[in-house]
Amino acid sequence: MDNDVDVQTLNEGAETDVLLIGGGIMSATLAALIAELEPTWSIRILERLDEPAQESSGPWNNAGTGHAALCELNYSPQREDGSVDVSKAIDVNEQFQLSRQFWSFLVESGHIPEPGAFIQATPHMSFVWGAENVAYLKERHRILAGHPLFEGMEYSEDPAQIAEWAPLLVAGRTGDEPIAATFSTDGTDVDFGALTKLILASMTERGAQIDYRADVRSVHRTMDDVWHVRGKQDGVAFHHRARFVFVGAGGRALTLLQKSRIPEIKGFGGFPVSGEFLRTSNPDVVARHHAKVYGKAAVGAPPMSVPHLDTRVVDGQSSLMFGPYAGFSPRFLKHGSLLDLFASLRAHNLIPMIKAGLANIGLTIYLIGQLIARKQTKFSQLQEFFGDADPADWEKITAGQRVQVIRPDGVLQFGTEVITHRDGSIAGLLGASPGASTAAPIMLELLERCFPERWDAWQPRLTEMVPSQGAPLSEDPALAREIHDRTSKVLELDHRA
């Protein structure tokens, strides 16, 4: 027991079947899946802040892309021989299709009353300039255009056509430099904060307990194979007991899993990266751009630095957002502590973290460059997309804090990592992108790993919720088209109109 937790506690020894730490999209998704698979299980969610989805799931803390690899070029890197590897793009799209299916199920089941409250049809575009980049994008389109998950993707090097798709991209250009773009009507803008709140509201109606301002301080297991979760809520200590615990606490998941002392977390570390965006709500500017447009990261820059100019719809209001601009803070959460990074250091992860640092000197140089860059230098990056951009129209906003995974082998991983104890009684999620967009497949993977003895019995219900799980859509074009059309109709997305 932590020294700062009182002996007399709220809910002393209260037991629940499933205890979820963190009130973001991951915990909400897992709670909803479990409620369908095991409706008799009790569920409790502990959230440190006053309301859910205030960290990475919040609408201004992520780009809301609905990562489907339709536009994100970092998922289709160019090899040294000039060829393009699209395997990751296909995998990411497959995962997003599973999320779409699960959201459609929630809408059809009445658990989400209005899909327009969290998802909007928004074209996805890739946009590049310069002869080498144009050649790359043309090859990428050639490979993907015939794939069932990327059906209908268009390509053009014609400024007039690109201007028709997204006028701001051509505004202010002289025409001296070759440009190219791809365009897909299958893209979406997703407000993951709104989606999280909708799911959790439904969970409350179904009997789940959600405790806010519940700051978890310790997670440990006793000899009776029960997990004990302790902390403080509004200054009063609490103590909950659970057979299964999920740590979906964003950047704080690392330190809470370390406190659990499970061997699977040994060697893992985290490197925090903050981000900033420029945002405008000027209706004259917003009206001229309806798309999410991704470019190529600068040479030597990390994948997370891919610049993009996005339409965002939050609370019914449209805005444009451009970024990201990387920063650094030792906090592991936007509302975290300056001591977070240092608190995560252990004897077992020091060497992996040193290895990661030495292997990613380029990233360090990039971050330093971003930190010392002048305001005009940063704005000029926006002007590479939108040449006529006026600084008076744009404001700076701070995005969510991300913690990149450092693996025990010293590799800095730009993605997510599911950590599960060998007996499946506790699990957690580390890492970032594509994150929220792939919440459903990530939580399905977690369920399979933690409850292997129940997995086969769950299959009929899982197939109702997520029809293509376990059967890649890329291998069945007819099924891919059928599911795409059905989910588009349920989610009220006017794709391929």
UniProtKB/TrEMBL annotation:
Reported cofactor(s): FAD
Catalytic activity reported: (S)-malate + a quinone = a quinol + oxaloacetate
EC assignment: 1.1.5.4
Pathway info: Carbohydrate metabolism; tricarboxylic acid cycle; oxaloacetate from (S)-malate (quinone route): step 1/1
Superkingdom assignment: Bacteria
Pfam family, one: Mqo
InterPro entries in the record: FAD/NAD-bd_sf, MQO
Classification via Gene3D superfamilies: D-Amino Acid Oxidase, subunit A, domain 2, FAD/NAD(P)-binding domain
Flavoprotein found in the keyword field: yes
Keywords: FAD, Flavoprotein, Oxidoreductase, Tricarboxylic acid cycle
Family: Belongs to the MQO family.
Alphabetical list of HAMAP family matching this protein: MQO (MF_00212)
The protein, known as: Probable malate:quinone oxidoreductase
Lineage: Bacteria, Bacillati, Actinomycetota, Actinomycetes, Propionibacteriales
Gene: mqo
